[in-house]
Amino acid sequence: MPYQSHSSAIIDHGAQIGEGSRIWHWVHVCSGAKIGQDCSLGQNVFIGNRVIIGDNVKIQNNVSVYDGVILEDGVFCGPSMVFTNVYNPRAEIRKMDQLRPTRVCRGATIGANATVVCGVTIGRYAFIGAGAVVTRDVPDHALVFGNPAHNVGWMCRCGERLTDDLQCPACSDRYETSADGIRMQDAAS
């Protein structure tokens, strides 16, 4: 087996799990899930059938990744954060045909107890603060907090908040404004 899983984990036949991934206590991975290499699924994680997870993704304890969610490479999902997949669910009415896909782009971080309402895209290297409620798309490198989440600054690829002049105090990378937010100077970020 190219990945590690705890004996309490349930991995349905047909699930694709990449080499080096680690699956911890009481995790359930459904049969249609695709999970990349070197991922970590913490305790009590659920991965739905129509979920795609890239390489080097870390999903902390108590997170459910429902059908229609795509997590690109290097995404971090903090403890007990929430994804939804139907905008206006009802228990008495089946609405899975109204599923709204959600994409979390490369390197993004979603803080503990944040909620991501379905149908949005979270940009590359964006940072969603703990407890935020994301109701609309988040630009690349944006730092968002609150309910509803709103932009309060910008983040470097290395995970540090940028200064007002869009320079990283940790790694000294510089960014510039662009039509859809910011981007690294002299390189695609």
Summarize the entry for a quick read.
The chain is mainly beta and 189 residues long. The protein has strands at 4-5, 10-11, 16-17, 22-23, 28-29, 34-35, 40-41, 46-47, 52-53, 58-59, 64-65, 69-71, 76-77, 82-83, 102-104, 109-110, 115-116, 121-122, 127-128, 133-134, 142-145, 150-154, 175-178, 181-184.
H/I helix tally? 0
Q: Give the number of DSSP strands.
A: 24
Helix content: under 10%
Widest beta sheet: strand line-up: 1-4-7-10-13-16-19-21-22
How widely separated are the two ends?
35 Å
User: What is the helix/strand order?
Assistant: EEEEEEEEEEEEEEEEEEEEEEEE
Indicate the proportion of strand residues.
25-35%
Based on the structure, what is the oligomeric state of the protein chains?
A: single chain
Indicate the structural class: mainly beta
- Estimate the global geometry from the Cα principal axes: globular
The biggest beta sheet reads: 9 strands, mixed
The Rg value, from CA coordinates, equals: 17 Å
Mean pLDDT: 96
Low-confidence segments, ≥5 residues, pLDDT <50? Answer: none
Your description of this structure?
With 189 residues, this protein is mostly beta strands. It has no helices and 24 strands. The chain has strands at 4-5, 10-11, 16-17, 22-23, 28-29, 34-35, 40-41, 46-47, 52-53, 58-59, 64-65, 69-71, 76-77, 82-83, 102-104, 109-110, 115-116, 121-122, 127-128, 133-134, 142-145, 150-154, 175-178, 181-184. The strands form five sheets. Strands 1-4-7-10-13-16-19-21-22 form a nine-stranded mixed beta sheet, with no helix packed on it. The protein has a six-stranded parallel beta sheet with strand order 3-6-9-12-15-18, with no helix packed on it. The chain has a four-stranded parallel beta sheet with strand order 2-5-8-11, with no helix packed on it. Strand 23 (175-178) and strand 24 (181-184) form a beta hairpin.
